[in-house]
Specification:
Helix content: 25-40%
Number of strands: 10
Mean pLDDT: 92
Distance between the termini: 35 Å
Radius of gyration: 17 Å
Number of helices: 10
Strand order of the largest sheet: 6-7-8-3-9-10
Shape: globular
Low-confidence stretches: none
Order of helices and strands: EEEHEEHEHHHHEHEHEEHH
Structural class: alpha/beta
Oligomer: single chain
Length: about 240
Amino acid sequence: MELLKFENVAVKYGAIEAIRNVSFTVKKGEIVTLIGANGAGKTTTLRAISGLVRPSQGKILHNGTDITGLPAHQIVRRRISQSPEGRGIFLNLTVEENLDLGAWTAPDPKTLNQDLEMVFGLFPRLKERRKQNAGTLSGGEQQMLAMGRALMAHPDLLLLDEPSLGLAPQIIQKIFEIIQTINKQGVTVLLVEQNALQALQIAHQGVILETGSVAGSGPARELLKSDQVRKAYLGE
């Protein structure tokens, strides 16, 4: 079942076309990764889904409903949430306050404590630091907080933008394990990640973006075997 469908979408920043004629689908229950060089249009693609930029052409469908150009707050209410590049957490608020803000569109406010425990189960370090200001956390802990905040909205589609950026290798491994756990719990994931090898290793499908256009797509296992992908994105 198609949860998300991108149909010939283009996004412009002024006269610059960041993405053009981009099409792909995300099936319910999958991890789909977007890979490509810096400037390929990966973050713009997520921003278009989240309602942060308005496409100049094309359609974005969520569960068969056209959500193209809807404002961001309406997108979140449709159970699409994003952990942005750079984390975007509120450094002067506590861990728990950041998580509470993520729950503002949760279907049942009465489940707040239950939802907090769900996030703390995934990220035990956050439970230990629940009363600390987010600005005192390590980079890895801040990334966990950004992901946890996105999960508080009960998304059926979780958008992750560069979750491993700037993190130590052992923390990166933990983040990717948690992404798989989240997916196994029923959350569909659209992942933007510079670490193409690890992204393809956990994904079901992959989409390659080059200079704003789709250069290839297919099952992640097949892309891992592709000589072109291995040379261009896996450093071989």
